Structures are given as structure tokens and as C-alpha cells.
């Protein structure tokens, strides 16, 4: 639902007189939370505390990057145009957000208390930051015990995958997204993808520079520097890129392409939290296991 400027101005003015401004009492220590970031969303789902509302809920369900939302979770629309009326009508106890939407915080505070959590930190160990983030959410949402069980299970699964991968012959691994038929986004640096590779004992084929977020956009000719690698690309691929790449002399002559060592995997949220990290680890485990059985 959208509003013209006058309606929106009236709505926001009305909030200043609303009893919501004074804050709401959390029920039984487990607040009804609206969540305005997908990394925070996937974390709340993982620790057993589904939110009452999320941004881009329809897109989340169609993305296949995590479990579907319960039917009673409200979709607030895309973050630039959040449905404030719907959010206010739900009377959340808490609005959990990230710096990606902090420009909306003055308005959101009029609806309910806000909690701004930094999902991504430029650090050597992003997974450790995500563990701390998960614990913070568990405490605030009254799910500490469930959170500790989730963290222990996550460690167990990471350790099991690392042990399996250690028993296989290893090649360097290149993680990428196709931007178009000539350019790819490659991952490394201090990003979440690189940290997952480190956690699993895998070696990244990309050793070039990356930006603050842990990726670089490069021409496919830059991929010719290392031959003995497994390229793992992620959906989506631009529709015309597949056809163009199949005809490209540059692409088809790359050693790992000629050897058939290019895999296409489902999307993984690059700005995700522990659930996305574990999703990436399990996708890599499955794909590299297949590769180990079918190639030398």
C-alpha cells in the first residue's frame, strides 16, 4: 500500500501522538519483532523466533535461500518503501534493523523501539562476528538456550564438512557470480565467502584485491591465471550470458572450462549470517563430493 505525500505526512504526524511512541511491553521476555534485514531474518528463523513482519517477504520466499516464512509473517514490502501503516498496525514490541536501512530509523522509532545491529564487519573473522550477532539476538529475543544449541549444531556440521573435504584431493576453489558474459564477481578478502573457505580448509584461487565487502568485479580474462581449479558459480546468471559464453573463444579455452570443472549452484546471501555461511558450506560439500567421484 502506498500513500501520497499528504497522506504520509498525516500518518507520521499521527504517530507522534500514538501510545506506541512510549514503547510496548515485551511479552514473556520474547518480544514480537519486526525484522528489516535478511541476515537478521534468517538468524531469527534459525533460533526458533520467527518475526511478525519482514521486508521483501515475497522475494525471500521465492529466493530459495532459506526456509519459507510462516504464513502469518507480514510482508512489509521493499526496504525503500516500507509499509509503515501495516507495521504500525501490527504493534511490534521491537524493530530489528541493520545499517542498510538506518535512514528510516527516525520514523521507525515512532512505531516501536528499534535495535540497529551491524550485520557485516570488515574483520578477519566474519564468522566470529556472526556468532556474536546470533548470541545477541538470542538474548534479546529470549532464545538463549535455543541459540546455544544452534551454535553447537552449526559447529558440528562445519567440522563434519571440513573432515570430509580433508579426505579428498583438493584443487583451488573459485567462487563467482556472472555479471554478464564478460565479467564476473569473484569473492575473497575478508568477506563471508572467504571465511567459509577458511573454515572448511579450502584454498581460494582468487588472490587478487577485493573491495570492503570482500569481492571484486573482473573480466573473465583475469580467470586464466590459474588452471587447476574448481569454479563454483552461483545463480542467477543473466539470460543471454550462457549463450554468449558458449560461443566465446576466450571462455571456452580457459583450462578449467575445457576440463568441465565449472559448477552452478543456488544463490547464497553474500551479506548473510551463520545460516548463509552454513548453506554455502553444505552446497560446497555436496558439489565437491560429486566432483571428487567423477574426476581426478
Question: How does this model look, in words?
Answer:
- 42% of the residues lie in helices and 14% in strands.
- Helix 8 (192-200) packs across helix 12 (274-294).
- With 296 residues, it is of the alpha/beta class.
- A five-stranded parallel sheet has the order 3-2-1-4-5. Strands 8-7-6-9-10 form a five-stranded mixed sheet.
Keywords:
296 residues; alpha/beta; globular; 12 helices; 5-stranded parallel β-sheet; 10 strands
Tally the beta strands: 10
* Average pLDDT over all residues: 88
- Largest sheet: spatial strand order: 3-2-1-4-5
**Between the first and last Cα atoms, what is the distance in angstroms?**
56 Å
Low-confidence stretches: 1-27
Write the H/E string, N to C: HEHEHEHEHEHHEEHEEHHHEH
Rg, nearest Å: 22 Å
Instruction: Indicate the proportion of strand residues.
Output: 5-15%
Structural class of the secondary elements? Answer: alpha/beta
Helix content: 40-55%
Q: Helix count?
A: 12
Concise synopsis of the structure shown:
The chain is an alpha/beta fold. The chain contains 12 helices and 10 strands. Strand 4 (94-97), helix 5 (105-108) and strand 5 form a beta-alpha-beta unit.
Explain the layout of strands and helices.
Elements: H1 5-15, E1 33-35, H2 38-46, E2 53-54, H3 57-63, E3 74-75, H4 84-90, E4 94-97, H5 105-108, E5 114-116, H6 126-140, H7 144-166, E6 172-178, E7 183-187, H8 192-200, E8 215-219, E9 229-234, H9 239-247, H10 249-252, H11 255-258, E10 262-265, H12 274-294
Parallel strand pairs: 1-2, 1-4, 2-3, 4-5, 6-9, 9-10
Antiparallel strand pairs: 6-7, 7-8
Helix pairs in contact: 6-7, 7-12, 8-12
Amino acid at each position: 500500500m502506498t500513500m501520497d505525500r499528504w497522506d504520509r505526512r498525516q500518518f507520521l504526524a499521527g504517530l507522534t501522538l500514538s501510545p506506541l511512541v512510549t514503547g510496548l511491553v515485551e511479552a514473556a521476555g520474547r518480544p514480537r519483532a519486526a525484522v528489516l534485514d535478511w541476515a537478521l531474518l534468517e538468524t531469527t528463523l534459525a533460533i526458533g523466533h520467527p518475526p511478525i513482519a519482514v521486508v521483501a517477504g515475497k522475494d525471500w520466499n521465492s529466493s530459495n535461500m532459506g526456509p519459507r516464512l510462516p504464513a502469518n509473517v507480514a510482508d512489509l514490502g521493499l526496504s525503500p518503501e516500507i509499509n509503515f501503516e501495516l507495521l504500525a498496525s501490527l504493534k511490534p514490541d521491537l524493530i530489528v534493523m541493520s545499517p542498510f536501512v538506518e535512514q528510516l530509523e527516525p520514523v521507525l522509532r515512532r512505531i516501536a523501539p528499534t535495535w540497529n545491529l551491524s550485520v557485516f564487519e570488515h574483520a578477519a573473522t566474519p564468522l566470529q562476528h556472526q556468532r556474536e550477532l546470533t548470541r545477541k539476538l538470542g538474548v534479546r529475543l529470549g532464545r538463549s538456550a535455543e541459540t546455544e544449541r544452534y551454535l553447537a549444531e552449526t559447529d558440528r556440521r562445519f567440522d563434519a564438512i571440513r573432515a570430509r573435504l580433508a579426505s579428498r584431493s583438493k584443487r583451488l576453489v573459485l567462487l563467482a557470480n556472472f555479471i554478464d558474459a564478460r565479467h564476473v564477481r569473484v569473492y575473497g578478502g575478508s568477506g563471508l565467502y572467504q571465511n567459509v573457505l577458511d573454515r572448511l580448509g579450502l584454498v581460494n584461487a582468487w588472490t587478487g584485491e577485493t573491495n570492503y565487502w570482500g569481492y571484486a568485479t573482473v573480466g573473465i580474462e583475469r580467470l586464466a591465471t590459474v588452471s587447476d581449479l574448481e569454479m563454483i558459480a552461483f545463480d542467477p546468471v543473466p539470460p543471454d550470458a550462457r549463450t554468449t559464453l558458449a560461443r566465446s573463444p576466450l571462455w571456452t579455452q580457459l583450462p578449467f572450462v575445457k576440463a568441465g570443472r565449472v559448477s552452478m549452484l543456488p544463490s547464497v546471501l553474500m551479506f548473510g549470517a551463520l545460516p548463509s555461511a552454513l548453506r554455502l558450506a553444505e552446497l560446497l560439500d555436496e558439489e565437491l563430493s560429486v566432483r571428487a567421484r567423477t574426476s581426478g
